[in-house]
Design brief:
The complex is a heterodimer of chains A (499) and B (309). Chain A has 21 helices and two strands. A two-stranded antiparallel ribbon of chain A has the order 1-2. Chain B is α/β, with parallel strands linked by helices. Classes of the chains: A mainly alpha (499), B alpha/beta (309).
Chain lengths: 499, 309
């Protein structure tokens, strides 16, 4: 069920109403049933996979906790990880291999799908499950003995399809001890949902009109249009994914739950490392805590010398651990080689950043530029955004041939552009991105970044609480009317749905 | 409890004007006719007398003029109308069409692989649900199948109200004269862009589904002794040259299967030299003069067919 569908709105109104009527001790039943209905709405055939995954990890959690010594705990965890990854890996491979197709009787086809459709959210709930098992193995969390509570942890519908990837310590206590209704939290939830719908329907889906034709048919476009489309895609994917997360967090708040904040103005990052601490925070923290750090500590215990192959050991460890982590990050997004290359590209960015950090700082110090100054930050932000945008081009490409076509297209057509700057505009208009779309984007994208940069959701809204009701309501109405009038209600899926 | 009461009250107060405005818009849109409403109205007036029924997409809508047919004919084709809707419309109205003798169904290069919900015209499936009450192919609850505001979106709905009633550009028997109203989107694109555009929303695998719809309809029609004529209408030579050979061969093989299993009649009017480049409104649609030429030929063939039976 899509968050942006009217069906979801009706479904949510129903769930929300029943949720607050029910006695607190029965709410988990409603949430579980609602989550399974939500999940099974598109392809009900995949619901057993979700149920199987929940049952399997519930069992593994208990099994791991019953082992007294660390070695047995570790062995049992390894089994848990292997089975979870096997399930995820199997569908990732099936989803890209043209040999496998969904049975026609299911009546399901998705544009551009080579093989099976990946069960929605499998990457997200698998990582949440792994998080649960690892925390139990590390004795940081006791296994949940109530199957129903655990099932809600795995299937909770606002976070099921696209995250955030919740840790058991952050989420399970909220299931076990349901919160009482709180006016401020509920209003905060509605605000987040409104903002999320605005980002998705008004900005992301409209930007897709300019982005999709250029990426799908780069041969038809010149360099300026390709560059514009690449920048717009960076904005689109942010508005799309963070829009989803805002809606998810808003829904959760309305049901009395707090979900992890997944974005923190990522395009204000001053380095690629900084970008990953602001983008998809729940995934980057997951990878840091369960892959990067254990790997780096594990290797550092084995490498005793100060240098290997003429390279400092800490650099070597960092480079290896970050490469493995980001290759995994790439595969997590998809089994295609472009995702692997995307992960490798980020590993390269981060390694280069790590190795050049000290010389760079020295250079700035010599030039008298302080790290806190704008002169330091702004060029850094621009360089980071450029690197991230380049990586998004690879991420968005349907394959290496498409990526190469896009790069080739980016290099041509500049002389025509110099002679007639309107040529790029005309190409986009013919592709379906009209002048009206451009005006809406020109008005809403700065609004998005300005409001988020002034901490619209966490700060401005708090300040707004002290303002008169008419002012608050005018603002809410403005956003709502913008959604109703300028939203693209085509039921297009979210970009991260495919993961 | 006080918190929840305050919340529900505030939310109701906040949403009331929005819901009221949307309700008014829904009402206004329901008062206004869209092109399918107009078509439905015209067709229902004459359904009982119709002897030849034309189904299909814009090719047939613009390319076959019922006025040129010897028998009472109605053109029930519409832009981007997939075989699912052709069959659904046919089966819906068949009990009322007591005089029906022949059903004409066009074969386009991509028609067997086209499903309405996978193209940029996906929204139109709600139009059929709203107007003709035809359920969505993948049956599920979607408010857009019941509400015109949800279907058009509030902005498009408002625009529709402001721009007043949809212009009726069809003839009374459902034909859209090409020169009078060429497809503006297709005119913008050259043949190469257009065929690329068509290939972007077709999938080989969908032919099975479309054939099953057609098999269902053909079985019903044959049982009632109604003739089926599949027609391949001409397209602009530039577009024709760009067609994928494999798809073309597969189309012919599917038609041969229908000929064997349901004794349909196939009329291939492509590359016959009957029309020239001046007979096209855009790379795929015939203009008025093209439609006149082709309609006469189809009519003659139908007369020959019905007389011989």
């Amino acid at each position: 069920m899509l968050f942006t569908s009217l069906t979801f709105l009706l479904f949510f109104v129903l769930v929300f109403s029943i949720h607050w009527i029910l006695p607190a001790r029965y709410r988990w039943i409603l949430l579980l049933v609602a989550s399974l209905v939500f999940y099974g709405f598109g392809i009900p055939q995949y619901t057993p996979i979700l149920v199987l995954s929940a049952l399997m990890n519930y069992g593994f959690g208990l099994w791991i906790s019953r082992a007294d010594d660390d070695r047995r705990r570790r062995n049992r965890l390894v089994w848990g990880i292997v089975l979870n990854i096997a399930l995820l890996g199997m569908f990732k491979v099936l989803s890209v291999h043209p040999l496998f197709t969904v049975p026609a009787s299911w009546g399901v086809t998705l544009s551009g799908t080579a093989g099976w459709i990946l069960p929605l959210g499998i990457s997200f709930f698998t990582f949440a499950n792994l998080s649960y098992l690892i925390e139990i193995k590390r004795r940081k969390w006791e296994p949940e003995r109530h199957l129903g509570y655990f099932a809600v942890y795995v299937t909770f519908f606002p976070k099921l399809i696209q995250g955030p990837i919740e840790r058991p310590a952050a989420f399970l206590p909220q299931v076990k001890t349901p919160a009482a209704f709180n006016y401020d939290r509920a209003v905060g939830g509605l605000r987040l949902m409104l903002w999320g719908f605005f980002k998705k329907l008004v900005i992301a889906d409209r930007l897709a009109l300019a982005v999709n034709p250029v990426f799908d048919r780069p041969h038809d476009f010149g360099g300026p249009a390709v560059i514009v489309a690449a920048i717009l895609y960076s904005i689109q994917i942010y508005a799309d994914f963070s829009g989803y997360i805002d809606i998810a967090r808003g829904c959760a708040k309305l049901l009395g739950f707090e979900l992890t904040k997944n974005f923190n103005r990522p395009y204000a990052a001053t380095s690629v490392k900084d970008f990953w601490s602001r983008w998809h925070i729940s995934l980057s923290n997951w990878l840091r805590d369960y892959v990067f750090l254990p790997l780096a500590f594990g290797i550092s215990r084995r490498l005793k010398k100060e240098r290997y192959l003429g390279m400092r050991t800490d650099h070597l460890i960092y480079s290896f651990a970050i490469t493995v982590t980001f290759l995994l990050c790439g595969i997590w997004h998809g089994a295609g080689f472009t995702f692997l290359a995307w992960g490798a590209l980020y590993a390269l960015y981060l390694m280069t950043g790590h190795l050049t950090e000290k010389p760079k700082r020295r250079l700035y110090r010599k030039a008298g530029i302080l790290p806190a100054s704008r002169l330091y930050r702004y060029p850094q932000v621009i360089v980071t955004f450029t690197l991230v945008t380049f990586a998004w081009v690879l991420f968005r490409s349907s394959g290496f041939q498409n990526f190469s076509d896009i790069l080739t297209a980016a290099a041509r057509g500049w002389s025509e552009f110099a002679a007639s700057p309107a040529s790029a505009y005309r190409q986009l208009v013919v592709a379906g991105f009209t002048l009206a779309d451009m005006v809406i984007i020109a008005a809403t994208v700065p609004f998005l970044f300005l409001t988020e940069s002034s901490r619209f959701l966490d700060g401005t809204w708090q300040r707004l609480k002290t303002r008169p009701a008419w002012l608050r309501w005018s603002l809410y109405y403005s956003v709502l009317i913008a959604i109703l009038l300028f939203g693209k209600f085509e039921n297009s899926t979210f970009i991260y749905y495919q993961f | 409890m006080r918190d929840s009461r305050k919340f529900f009250l505030s939310l109701t107060l906040f949403l009331a004007p929005v819901i009221l405005a949307l309700g008014c818009l829904e009402y206004a849109l329901r008062q206004q006719k869209n092109y399918l409403d107009i078509k439905k109205e015209k067709f229902e007036q004459v359904a009982g007398a119709v002897e030849v029924l034309i189904l299909g997409d814009s090719h047939a809508h613009m390319g076959l003029d019922p006025a040129r047919f010897d028998r009472k004919t109605f053109n029930l084709a519409s832009p981007a109308q997939s075989y699912y809707y052709d069959v659904s419309l046919l089966l819906k109205y068949l009990p009322r069409m007591h005089n029906l003798k022949v059903v004409i169904l066009p074969v386009t290069h991509f028609g067997f692989y086209y499903l309405e919900d996978q193209s940029h015209n996906a929204r139109w499936q709600y139009l059929y649900a709203n107007t003709f009450g035809i359920p969505l192919r993948k049956q599920h609850f979607d408010l857009r199948a019941y509400s015109r505001v949800a279907m058009y979106t509030p902005y498009q709905g408002l625009k529709k109200i402001v721009e007043k009633q949809e212009q009726d550009v069809e003839t009374p028997d459902g034909h859209l004269p090409g020169a009078a109203h060429p497809s503006p989107d297709n005119q913008k694109m050259n043949a190469q862009e257009l065929i690329r555009h068509h290939y972007s929303f077709i999938r080989r695998g969908d032919a099975g589904l479309n054939c099953s719809f057609l098999n269902r309809a053909f079985s019903v029609l044959r049982k009632q002794g109604i003739n089926i004529v599949m027609v391949a209408l001409p397209v602009h030579p530039e577009y024709s040259l760009l067609k994928n050979k494999k798809i073309r061969e597969r189309n012919y093989s599917l038609i041969r299967q229908f000929e064997r299993s349901h004794h349909i009649h196939f009329l291939d009017l492509q590359n016959t030299g009957i029309v020239n480049t001046g007979d096209f409104a855009d790379p795929i649609h015939l203009n008025h003069s093209g439609a006149l030429k082709i309609s006469r030929i189809v009519s003659n063939n139908i007369s020959a067919l019905t007389n011989s039976l």
